[in-house]
Protein backbone atom coordinates (compact mmCIF):
# COMPACT_ATOMS: atom_id res chain seq x y z
CA UNK A 1 0.00 0.00 0.00
CA UNK A 2 1.39 3.24 -0.99
CA UNK A 3 0.48 6.19 1.14
CA UNK A 4 1.85 9.67 0.61
CA UNK A 5 1.75 11.99 3.60
CA UNK A 6 2.31 15.66 3.03
CA UNK A 7 2.70 17.72 6.13
CA UNK A 8 2.79 21.50 6.32
CA UNK A 9 4.07 23.00 9.52
CA UNK A 10 2.26 25.89 11.04
CA UNK A 11 4.03 29.22 10.93
CA UNK A 12 3.34 32.09 13.23
CA UNK A 13 3.79 35.68 12.13
CA UNK A 14 4.70 38.28 14.75
CA UNK A 15 4.55 41.99 14.06
CA UNK A 16 5.95 44.23 16.80
CA UNK A 17 5.77 47.95 17.16
CA UNK A 18 8.16 49.22 19.85
CA UNK A 19 6.99 51.82 22.34
CA UNK A 20 8.06 55.32 21.48
CA UNK A 21 7.97 58.49 23.60
CA UNK A 22 8.75 61.91 22.16
CA UNK A 23 8.93 64.82 24.61
CA UNK A 24 9.19 68.35 23.29
CA UNK A 25 9.99 70.78 26.10
CA UNK A 26 9.92 74.54 25.53
CA UNK A 27 11.67 76.98 27.80
CA UNK A 28 9.53 79.05 30.11
CA UNK A 29 8.87 82.64 29.08
CA UNK A 30 10.69 84.95 31.51
CA UNK A 31 10.02 88.64 31.80
CA UNK A 32 12.45 90.36 34.16
CA UNK A 33 12.04 94.01 35.04
CA UNK A 34 14.84 95.60 37.01
CA UNK A 35 14.62 99.11 38.40
CA UNK A 36 18.04 99.89 39.87
CA UNK A 37 18.58 101.39 43.30
CA UNK A 38 19.17 105.13 43.12
CA UNK A 39 21.47 107.03 45.40
CA UNK A 40 21.57 110.81 45.47
CA UNK A 41 24.45 112.40 47.33
CA UNK A 42 24.39 116.12 48.06
CA UNK A 43 27.40 117.48 49.84
CA UNK A 44 29.18 120.64 50.73
CA UNK A 45 32.78 120.01 51.59
CA UNK A 46 33.68 120.72 55.20
CA UNK A 47 35.31 124.03 55.90
CA UNK A 48 36.99 124.91 59.17
CA UNK A 49 36.56 128.50 60.31
CA UNK A 50 38.95 129.85 62.95
CA UNK A 51 38.33 133.27 64.44
CA UNK A 52 41.46 134.44 66.31
CA UNK A 53 40.38 138.04 66.64
CA UNK A 54 40.04 137.94 70.44
CA UNK A 55 43.39 136.12 70.85
CA UNK A 56 45.19 138.73 68.72
CA UNK A 57 43.37 141.53 70.55
CA UNK A 58 44.55 140.24 73.94
CA UNK A 59 48.11 139.87 72.61
CA UNK A 60 48.21 143.50 71.47
CA UNK A 61 47.84 142.77 67.78
CA UNK A 62 44.85 145.02 67.29
CA UNK A 63 43.24 146.61 64.30
CA UNK A 64 43.75 150.36 63.95
CA UNK A 65 40.20 151.06 65.08
CA UNK A 66 40.54 148.92 68.22
CA UNK A 67 43.92 150.51 69.00
CA UNK A 68 42.50 154.04 68.71
CA UNK A 69 39.50 153.12 70.85
CA UNK A 70 41.58 151.42 73.59
CA UNK A 71 44.18 154.24 73.68
CA UNK A 72 41.40 156.83 73.94
CA UNK A 73 39.91 154.99 76.91
CA UNK A 74 43.33 154.55 78.57
CA UNK A 75 44.14 158.22 78.01
CA UNK A 76 40.80 159.22 79.50
CA UNK A 77 41.49 157.02 82.53
CA UNK A 78 45.06 158.40 82.95
CA UNK A 79 43.66 161.92 82.66
CA UNK A 80 41.07 161.25 85.35
CA UNK A 81 43.72 159.74 87.63
CA UNK A 82 46.00 162.74 87.04
CA UNK A 83 43.19 165.15 87.85
CA UNK A 84 42.40 163.16 91.02
CA UNK A 85 46.12 163.29 92.05
CA UNK A 86 46.31 167.02 91.38
CA UNK A 87 43.13 167.53 93.45
CA UNK A 88 44.52 165.38 96.29
CA UNK A 89 47.86 167.24 96.19
CA UNK A 90 46.07 170.58 96.13
CA UNK A 91 43.88 169.61 99.06
CA UNK A 92 46.97 168.45 100.99
CA UNK A 93 48.69 171.81 100.29
CA UNK A 94 45.55 173.70 101.19
CA UNK A 95 45.42 172.03 104.58
CA UNK A 96 49.07 172.70 105.37
CA UNK A 97 48.15 173.59 108.92
CA UNK A 98 47.28 169.93 109.56
CA UNK A 99 50.39 168.54 107.93
CA UNK A 100 53.71 170.14 108.64
CA UNK A 101 55.77 168.07 106.17
CA UNK A 102 53.41 168.10 103.21
CA UNK A 103 55.81 169.46 100.59
CA UNK A 104 58.64 166.99 101.31
CA UNK A 105 56.10 164.10 101.30
CA UNK A 106 54.66 165.22 97.96
CA UNK A 107 58.15 165.54 96.50
CA UNK A 108 59.09 162.12 97.80
CA UNK A 109 55.92 160.54 96.29
CA UNK A 110 56.56 162.26 92.96
CA UNK A 111 60.06 160.81 92.84
CA UNK A 112 58.92 157.25 93.40
CA UNK A 113 57.41 155.59 90.41
CA UNK A 114 55.18 152.64 91.13
CA UNK A 115 56.08 149.87 88.74
CA UNK A 116 53.80 146.86 88.87
CA UNK A 117 55.17 143.61 87.52
CA UNK A 118 52.85 140.80 86.64
CA UNK A 119 53.27 137.46 84.86
CA UNK A 120 50.46 136.56 82.53
CA UNK A 121 49.78 134.13 79.72
CA UNK A 122 48.65 135.30 76.36
CA UNK A 123 46.15 134.86 74.92
CA UNK A 124 43.61 134.24 77.62
CA UNK A 125 40.81 133.32 75.27
CA UNK A 126 40.67 130.40 72.93
CA UNK A 127 40.06 130.95 69.25
CA UNK A 128 36.52 130.40 68.06
CA UNK A 129 36.39 127.35 65.80
CA UNK A 130 33.37 126.14 63.85
CA UNK A 131 32.73 123.93 60.89
CA UNK A 132 30.59 124.31 57.80
CA UNK A 133 29.56 121.52 55.48
CA UNK A 134 27.04 118.77 55.13
CA UNK A 135 26.45 115.41 53.54
CA UNK A 136 22.95 114.28 52.55
CA UNK A 137 22.38 110.80 51.16
CA UNK A 138 18.97 109.88 49.75
CA UNK A 139 18.19 106.26 48.89
CA UNK A 140 15.49 105.05 46.58
CA UNK A 141 15.23 101.30 46.72
CA UNK A 142 15.15 99.52 43.41
CA UNK A 143 12.66 96.89 42.36
CA UNK A 144 13.13 93.53 40.71
CA UNK A 145 10.10 91.71 39.33
CA UNK A 146 10.20 88.36 37.61
CA UNK A 147 7.25 86.98 35.61
CA UNK A 148 7.63 83.39 34.57
CA UNK A 149 5.16 81.50 32.40
CA UNK A 150 6.09 77.85 32.38
CA UNK A 151 5.27 75.85 29.26
CA UNK A 152 3.93 72.35 29.55
CA UNK A 153 5.94 69.72 27.76
CA UNK A 154 4.36 68.14 24.68
CA UNK A 155 4.46 64.38 25.03
CA UNK A 156 3.72 62.01 22.17
CA UNK A 157 3.59 58.37 23.09
CA UNK A 158 3.07 55.33 20.89
CA UNK A 159 2.17 52.18 22.73
CA UNK A 160 4.10 49.06 22.14
CA UNK A 161 2.12 46.53 20.16
CA UNK A 162 2.70 42.86 19.50
CA UNK A 163 0.45 41.28 16.91
CA UNK A 164 0.63 37.50 16.55
CA UNK A 165 -1.12 35.82 13.65
CA UNK A 166 -0.99 32.58 11.70
CA UNK A 167 1.17 33.04 8.72
CA UNK A 168 0.60 29.43 7.60
CA UNK A 169 -1.80 27.00 9.13
CA UNK A 170 -0.53 23.45 9.75
CA UNK A 171 -1.98 20.74 7.62
CA UNK A 172 -1.56 17.05 6.97
CA UNK A 173 -2.59 15.57 3.65
CA UNK A 174 -2.58 11.82 3.25
CA UNK A 175 -2.93 10.39 -0.29
CA UNK A 176 -3.37 6.79 -1.23
CA UNK A 177 -1.38 6.01 -4.26
CA UNK A 178 -2.12 2.38 -4.72
CA UNK A 179 -4.89 0.67 -6.59
CA UNK A 180 -5.74 -1.95 -4.19
CA UNK A 181 -8.35 -1.04 -1.81
CA UNK A 182 -9.48 -3.61 0.63
CA UNK A 183 -13.03 -2.89 1.15
CA UNK A 184 -13.62 -5.72 3.55
CA UNK A 185 -13.99 -4.79 6.95
How would you sum up this structure in a few lines?
With 185 residues, the chain is α+β, with helices and mostly antiparallel strands. It has three helices and ten strands.
Could you characterize the architecture of this molecule?
With 185 residues, this protein is α+β, with helices and mostly antiparallel strands. It contains three helices and ten strands, in the order E-E-E-E-E-H-H-H-E-E-E-E-E. The strands form five sheets. The chain has a two-stranded antiparallel ribbon with strand order 1-10. Strands 2-9 form a two-stranded antiparallel sheet. The longest helix is centred in the middle third of the chain and has 31 residues. The model has no long low-confidence stretch (mean pLDDT 86).
Helix content: 25-40%
- Write the H/E string, N to C: EEEEEHHHEEEEE
The biggest sheet amounts to: 2 strands, antiparallel
Major β-sheet strand ordering? 1-10
CA radius of gyration is 68 Å
> Quick one: how many beta strands?
10
N- to C-terminal separation? Answer: 16 Å
Structural classification: alpha+beta
Coarse shape: rod-shaped
β-sheet strand percentage: 35-45%
Mean pLDDT: 86
Uncertain regions spanning at least 5 consecutive residues: none
Please describe the structure with a list of short key phrases separated by commas or semicolons.
185 residues, two-stranded antiparallel ribbon, alpha+beta, 42% strand, 3 helices
Amino acid sequence: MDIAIHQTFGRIGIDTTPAEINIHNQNADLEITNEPTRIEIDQKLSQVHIDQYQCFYESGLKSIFDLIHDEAERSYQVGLEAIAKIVDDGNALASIENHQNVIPELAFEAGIENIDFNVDLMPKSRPKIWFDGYLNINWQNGNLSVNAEPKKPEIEATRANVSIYMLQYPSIKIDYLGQNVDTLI
